[in-house]
Design brief:
- This protein has 13 helices and eight strands.
- With 306 residues, the chain is an alpha/beta fold.
- It is globular, with a radius of gyration of 18 Å.
- The N terminus is likely disordered.
């Protein structure tokens, strides 16, 4: 029987985290009751952590007040059973510090801080931004490395330097650079969480700590089982699960924008009553919904027809 060949990696924020969507009512207003219900559902289906107000949570189109209310609602619902990480990253260091302090006051267990986007700071400034935010609270910090959105990667040497800060403890990795990831894992004690569902299994086999997933909204149990299989050294089982979920990854991550697609998937599976998003996003079209329905069915996650 397969057995683990090495100690499990550090897991400061848990193992299977959802990059949780933010539910809205049909008129576009924040639906806190639905958010609490969704958080309960996610924890009941394999998640031991949630990221609130990340990109999938449509953080660019929620106010600071809404972010605070959402975080508090999720903490009230599941904060005693899951790690609740507040997305606080912006491209304004001062604003990010304000959001970080507000999240700490609300009771968040940790912070997710994305690379400052659009203004394309050099690496010295990227590092200074992260250190300033980490200095602002007593909470552990997960850096979010996603150059496709931010326009700037967190370079390997910057990550190595950032790891010297006591409160910078993890990375959500969406850079599609497994060699770079392996280098950082070899040179630091940072916990790595896959931020790309297509690369969840490869990153875990490199020594990743877990996942911060969009697809896990509808496949939390399966991803939890996959992580457990990797921990046990059973890569055959892990590969089998990863292969089974490939259609779901296609449906949620390629049919349209991720938040749009996963809200459609949650509506299809009866978890959310609707798929409202805020502009500039638009809800999934009928054709997109049907494609997502078919993909989920192929993955064994939803019925093939309405």
């Amino acid at each position: 029987m397969p057995t683990a060949t090495a100690a499990q990696p550090p897991r400061p924020f848990g193992t299977v985290l959802s990059a949780m969507v933010t539910p809205f009512r049909p008129d576009g207003s924040l639906d806190l009751a639905a958010a609490a219900s969704l958080a309960e559902h996610l924890v009941a289906t394999g998640h031991d952590g949630l990221v609130v107000s990340g990109t999938t949570g449509e953080s660019p189109t929620t106010t600071d007040e809404e972010k605070d209310a959402l975080l508090r609602a999720v903490l009230d619902a599941v904060g005693d059973r899951a790690t609740v990480v507040a997305g606080v990253g912006t491209n304004d260091t001062r604003h990010t510090v304000e959001l970080a302090r507000a999240a700490e006051k609300a009771g968040a267990h940790g912070l997710l801080v994305v690379t400052p986007y659009y203004n394309k700071p050099p690496q010295t400034a990227v590092l200074a931004h992260f250190e300033t935010v980490a200095d602002a609270t007593g909470l552990p910090v997960m850096l979010y490395d996603i150059p496709a959105r931010a326009g700037v990667p967190i370079e390997t040497e910057t990550l190595v330097r950032a790891a010297e800060h006591d409160r910078i403890v993890a990375v959500k990795d969406a850079k599609s650079d497994l060699y770079g990831t392996a280098q950082v894992l070899a040179r630091t004690d940072l916990a790595y969480y896959s931020g790309e569902d297509a690369l969840n299994l490869p990153l875990l086999t490199l020594g990743g700590s877990g996942i911060v997933s969009v697809v896990s909204h509808v496949a939390g149990r399966e991803y939890a089982a996959m992580v457990a299989a990797v921990d046990a050294g059973d890569l055959v089982a892990a590969r089998t699960l990863a292969s089974r979920l490939l259609p779901a990854v296609r449906g949620v991550m390629t049919r349209t924008q991720g938040a749009v697609a996963v809200k459609a998937a949650l509506e299809l599976t009866g978890v959310l009553p609707g798929r409202t998003v805020r502009q500039p996003l638009l809800p999934a079209t009928t054709a997109e919904v049907e494609a997502i329905r078919a993909d989920l069915a192929l993955a064994g996650l939803a019925a093939p027809a309405a």
